[in-house]
Amino acid sequence: MTAECASWSTSQHLSSLGGLASKLGRLEMQAGLLDNWHEEKDKDGLLKAYRSGHALSEQVSELKDYITAVADAELDGDAALLAVTAGHTASYAVELIRQAMDASCLSCKGSQVLADLSAATLCMLSQRAPAHEPMVNAGAIPVLLHLLDPQQSIIAVDNAAKALGNLSADAACRSLMRSSGAVGALVRLLKPDCLESMQVSAAASLALLAARDSVVQDSLRYLGAIPLLVDLLASPSASVTEAARCCLSALKRNNTRNAADILASLRSSPDLAKDYWRLKGAITLLDETPSHSLAGSLTSSPLANNSMSSSLTASPAKSTRSRSAARVKATVRDLLLEQACTQARREAAEAAAQVASAVELIRQAMDASCLSCKGSQVLADLSAATLCMLSQRAPAHEPMVNAGAIPVLLHLLDPQQSIIAVDNAAKALGNLSA
Question: pLDDT for 359-373, tens place per residue?
Fold first, then answer.
């Protein structure tokens, strides 16, 4: 009996060991299949990454070709062909942004770079009036509105806001922006949780919209933009403060309700109350003519600059205070005017020195003995970019002419020169035409 029990126990144990061995064999086979699957998946991922990178390179190259066509049409002076090339470029840029916005492409390497390049392209196109209608037809405004999100990159948000500000020169574009919620999206970027560069671009675009459209002035008041802009006046950043001042000046233009709300917000601001001189400067905002320096940050086109300057002219607020208060305001205004004149003279002197230096550097680079010198072309490109930047400032126009910048810029309008030099030279001459 004992022997039978031992035999039965041994047989059961052997059977259990056999089952365990077969189970281990199946697990080993499954592990091998899983390893093969992971290996195939890694190969497929590498192949997709290669294809994605190759496709990205092709898309950037194609976008560059479109932009080159726009530049050629502009240099040729053909407005009709400029509109055609701008339309194709806008359509392609919009398509690239939509691809980058696709949920399946959000994690793709380079998708954000592609969106940034496309947004910069649309901003560039928006500086050209013939491109406005083609951009609207290509569906650029809804795409630009989608980019007005603090979660997007700084480059995309900055260029999208500036593009919308430039498009506001067209009445049809303004109507479409109002109905699409562009005003509210730009006001969102004025909040403290947004970066300073986003706040500057949003305030500048809203200044252009408000200066050109009285409906936008009222909309901004209803959306609570005035307290946000007043808070920005207390910002330590000079660019943020200047953008906020310009926008508030546009808001109060021929709008007594906005002027009253601005004054109330200025007086109730705790941040401004901590700094007497900043508060005093903010109060004089109601009697100031807005600064024109902000116009150049949105566009390098002289036509847009003139439009900005003419549209942001503020009418003096009618004071209901006592005569003593009026005299104090007049005295402060005279002091501010004197400071502005002094600043303008200083800026003109600095611009003259910069122009002379840039012209001399270009002449050195153009010298036959320096044509083969390493870095001469880079020097010419940087100097041409400097002249283009200075040409966006009206006080620098006369110093540029006196320094002989125009003959030098004309010399750079040669297809044999670099793209950077030709592009900046053409833009500088266009700005000087003002």
Answer: 676 777 666 555 556
